[in-house]
Amino acid sequence: MNKKKYVVELKDEEKDTLLDLIKSGETKARKLNRAHILLLADDGRSNTDIAAALHTSESTVYRTCKRLVEGNLEFALNERRRPGAKVKLSSKDETLLIALSKSTPPEGRTNWTMQLLADRLVELGEVESISDETVRRILKKRHQALAEATLVYSQCRRRIRVADGRCAGSVCRILRSQASDCEL
């Protein structure tokens, strides 16, 4: 595999910065490893030697040197942001899910399953698709919060309110989808 070789030539102030970073002892291990890679690469050692000395892979050494040559020292030392996946349900949708899980299950069932809850959310048009695992994680996450902030059901407005008075969402549209009249 013919990879372009990136030659690392550190300035004196960059070397001092890296040495101070290593001596401080309050830095993340990955950042320390990259600092060691850059210092060894500046000494003229090969990627294979650096990888063996630091117990890391050659590709890590290659990428770190590449990031220094193409960018700067900060770019080479720090990781890129990892934004993660977009949130499937808003807080109102999560509240709807919780209210739905507390309501009576569909006919012929004694309990709601995670898959039934996921299917019902899709039927209601809250999301295009959602997995039963996502439903499980949301219910698990919110279970403790709900236990701490007990829910209050408002008779006149048919809304779920948290004990401190904040509105948690409407129960009526869930019940309408299950029965013709809304009784709370």
What is the mean pLDDT? 80
Estimated structural class = mainly alpha
Portion in strands? 5-15%
As a percent range, the share of helical residues equals 40-55%
User: Can you list the strand order of the major beta sheet?
Assistant: 1-2-3
Number-wise, the strands total: 3
**Assembly category:** single chain
How many structural domains are formed by the residues?
A: 2
The major β-sheet equals: 3 strands, antiparallel
The SSE order reads HHHHHHHHEEEH
The number of helical runs is 9
CA gyration radius, whole angstroms: 28 Å
Span between termini: 69 Å
**Low-confidence region ranges:** 177-184
Shape type: elongated
Textual characterization of the structure:
With 184 residues, the protein is mostly helical. It has two domains: 66 residues; 88 residues, no CATH class. Helix content is 54%, strand content 6%. It is built from nine helices and three strands, in the order ααααααααβββα. Strands 1-2-3 form a three-stranded antiparallel β-sheet. The longest helix is centred in the C-terminal third of the chain and has 17 residues. The chain is elongated.
What's the gist of this structure?
The chain is mostly helical and 184 residues long.
Highlighted features:
3-stranded antiparallel sheet; 9 helices; single chain; 54% helix; 3 strands; 2 domains; mainly alpha; 184 residues
What is the secondary structure topology, with strand pairs?
Elements: H1 12-24, H2 29-42, H3 47-54, H4 58-70, H5 73-77, H6 91-102, H7 114-123, H8 132-148, E1 151-153, E2 159-162, E3 167-170, H9 172-178
Helix pairs in contact: 1-2, 2-3, 2-4, 3-4, 7-8
